[in-house]
Write a structure and sequence with these properties.
This protein is of the alpha/beta class. The protein folds into two domains: 4-15 and 84-216, HAD superfamily/HAD-like (Rossmann fold, 3-Layer(aba) Sandwich); 17-82, DNA polymerase, domain 1, CATH 1.10.150. It is 44% helix and 12% strand. The chain has helices at residues 17-30, 38-44, 49-60, 66-80, 90-98, 111-120, 144-153, 167-175, 208-216; strands at 4-7, 102-107, 129-132, 160-164, 179-182, 198-199. Strands 3-2-1-4-5-6 form a six-stranded parallel β-sheet, sandwiched between helices. Strand 2, helix 6 and strand 3 form a beta-alpha-beta unit. Helix 1 packs across helix 4 (66-80) and helix 3 (49-60) packs across helix 4 (66-80).
Amino acid sequence: MIKLAIFDLDGLLANTLETSRSAWNALLKECNCKPMGKEEYAKITGKGSIHTANVLISTRGLDTTARSLLKRKRELYKKMLPDVKAMPGALNAARKLSEKMKLALVSNSTRKEVDLVLSSIGALKLFSTSIAGDEICCPKPAPDLYEATLKKLKIKADNSIAFEDSESGIMAACGAGINAIAIPNTYTKRHNFNCALRIVSSWKEITPSAIEKWVKK
């Protein structure tokens, strides 16, 4: 029986990936560099902000460190977060699941970013707990976020289900022994979701009964 549903945030629950790309491009403009198009961003997103920063340093020939670049990007990103919206159908699906199980959230984003996004989409009180990327040792694709959530809520992996939009997120959930459902977006639709329990096209497919059915197969 599923007792816990664990959600990713960026690109899964909240439509933040385009906002993130806009922040990176605002930074690149400050550096007089070529902006990132959607195709380029799709190839590097989902692997963490430090990875994106290192890619941009390499491809744009920037004379800086990844952490310095990321610090400025986050300053620009936070200014854009109040306008972020929830992904279509995400909150409705989450609320339906909350009637049958606990909800938790795990994200590679910082605590400040997580709280800002949840506030923007009206979901601050929806989750029993949330753990951010700056609150654990290793971000996704490492399983640390998921393992910390299971430990905190004292629920076994077998009684949990995860929702992710990226390859690294699916790998993190699988690494913690949790069945994971992939809901790809425009940027992650070409990711490798081989270890996912199921791949669905929208939140409309997600119901408590559907999850129990998929887990039992």
